Amino acid sequence: MSSHEPVPLFSAQFDLNSQEFSLSGILRPLSPIEIAETTTLLEKSINQVRGVLYINVKRLIHMNATAYHALARLLVNASRARRDIRFVVVTSSVVGWATRTFHHLSAIEPKIAVEAYDSAFYPGQTFVENQSFIPILRTQTKMTWRHERDILPRHGMRAGIAMADICCGIGDFAVLVHKEFKPARIVALDHSAVSLDYARKVAADFDIRDIEYTYGDASEMLLEDNQFDLVTCRHSLQIFNRPDILLKELYRICKPGGRVYITNEKNSHCLGEPRAASIQWTYNEVATLFSHFDMDVEMGPKSRRLLRDAGFEAIEMESFMVSNLDGDPQDFADVVAAWEDVYAGEMSVRRGDTSEFIKRFRQGFQDHIFAALHPKGYAGWPIWAASGRKPL
Amino acid sequence: MSEQSTDRTALPFHPMLELEMEMEIFMSDWLHCNQLSNYVARMVSHDRSDPVRHANLLSSALNELFEISFRSGSAPGRLHCDISRGDHLERISLTFPCAPEQQHLYRDASTKASGGGALERYLDALADENSVQEDIILLGLAINYDASLLLREVEGRALTVILDIPVEGLLN
């Protein structure tokens, strides 16, 4: 390719319905002429909107000064000529340079607002970023690992691979995989700075230096296409309101022939004996509660369909029951106690439930704990693991 | 050799990567700026606290310097890039052929970027369609990356731009 051809590394789109002009990819032209089509599209977009125009640069990975200057002048001039339109530039907190760079536009012309996209865009994100969730995640991973250690090789895990753990949380899974399977490379990504700080500290304490913990948004990742032999995403699709977008990203970063491995729950199938009816009632309500916040904790058995719809082939699917018989029953009880804290103590309150409802809701968790700790009792938490191969 | 800014060579910087290529080859394709920036940034970011974001930021700054050298248009000669690391800084040192009559553009831009009032000058330059490209680039590096600049003339035929960037600080 000669240097006079446009750099084909980016795309620009305008969506009239949402009045949003989006730029994505790498925008590093030699001269403004190379991006003339893009600036013309932006000018046309400005002429078609009323009230507000959103400029979405969340997926703009790189932009050079030449492109920025051209866009900045266009936006500043347009905001001065069209006093009836507000301009809102939406950047990503994940792309470090973007918010700093675009922020100057509002200093030049106050009618241009710059908003850093953040976790508030995900309805359920605030609950899982809460520090009180850390003990839940830690104990959950300890309990599920007993099963997943056997399951993972059937889904593409083996020594020497390049793998990514997306929505890695506090990073325990990455550490366990690192020790057990010895991949050549592990990238672990999460959108919670608090969780990543914790993960880095644990890795440092264990003298583990080769896990790349990175701050990132699973639906808008900076990771390049076709990089990983195995991409894992555990218990996370079910807490995003748009799992299809996440799966598209998991597919994108997976190598052709590689696999994407997901785990999800079906909370209404949590069970226990004795006090089965009370436990059943509460977990049915858990599913309804999550649905209120646009999360689907009934997703587990839907994994096969989700993977097929995302374009995967050779889908493998299985389920396992984490129970009070796996090691110390107190671990199971601790997990349920943590669920009660977050689900009944925070989410149900946020939904505006009555005190009578919350009391009954809590009772089911207490009964599940009772079943877990009872010498003759049984308590279970079912999980579905599935993986699909990206076609060659 | 002459210097325009305070000599900071006494600071302890450890070499990370050195790259050299014929200017003629480098200038055969504009995409080399993007490719080299991403490659070099990724190679030296692997051991940082957040390698992906570190590489993204470093590539952005590095690319501006590669683009400056590309635009200088002064083949023949060699392009030389050194990356080194101090306690809190990544140092990019880029040497490229540059005719003496062109060097004043970079010296002027560097002076504007290094002195007080750089932010105001940057905002004015952004809104002005007649701004000098070198001003926008060097002011942008100083303002958006908290970078400091040093220029060195190499025997009247080449220029070395040294850029110190606190990348780890920008990640927080």
Number of helices of chain A: 12
Q: Can you give the mean pLDDT of chain B?
A: 88
Question: Shape of chain A from CA axes?
Answer: globular
Low-confidence stretches of chain B: 1-7
β-strand percent of chain A reads: 25-35%
Radius of gyration of chain A: 24 Å
Name of the level-1 CATH class of the largest domain in chain A? Alpha Beta
Main sheet specs of chain A: 8 strands, mixed
Roughly what percent helix of chain B? 40-55%
Mean pLDDT of chain A: 91
Tell me the count of domains of chain A. Answer: 2
Would you identify the regions of chain A where 5 or more consecutive residues have pLDDT less than 50? 1-7
**Helix-strand category of chain B:** alpha+beta
Biggest sheet architecture of chain B? 6 strands, antiparallel
> What is the number of E strands of chain B?
6
The DSSP helix count of chain B reads 7
Shape of chain B: globular
Integer-rounded radius of gyration of chain B: 15 Å
> What would you give as the CATH superfamily of the largest domain in chain A?
Vaccinia Virus protein VP39
CATH architecture of the largest domain in chain A: 3-Layer(aba) Sandwich
Strand content of chain B: 15-25%
What's the arrangement of secondary structure elements?
The complex is a heterodimer of chains A (about 400) and B (about 170).
Chain A: E1 10-15, E2 20-27, H1 36-48, E3 51-63, H2 65-81, E4 85-92, H3 96-108, E5 112-117, H4 125-129, H5 134-151, E6 162-166, H6 172-181, E7 185-190, H7 193-205, E8 211-215, E9 228-234, H8 243-253, E10 254-265, E11 271-273, H9 276-292, H10 303-309, E12 313-323, H11 329-351, H12 355-373, E13 378-389
Helix pairs in contact in A: 5-6, 5-11, 9-11, 9-12, 11-12
Chain B: E1 2-3, E2 14-22, H1 23-26, H2 31-45, H3 51-72, E3 78-85, E4 90-97, H4 100-114, H5 118-127, H6 133-144, E5 148-154, E6 158-165, H7 167-171
Antiparallel strand pairs in B: 1-5, 2-3, 3-4, 4-6, 5-6
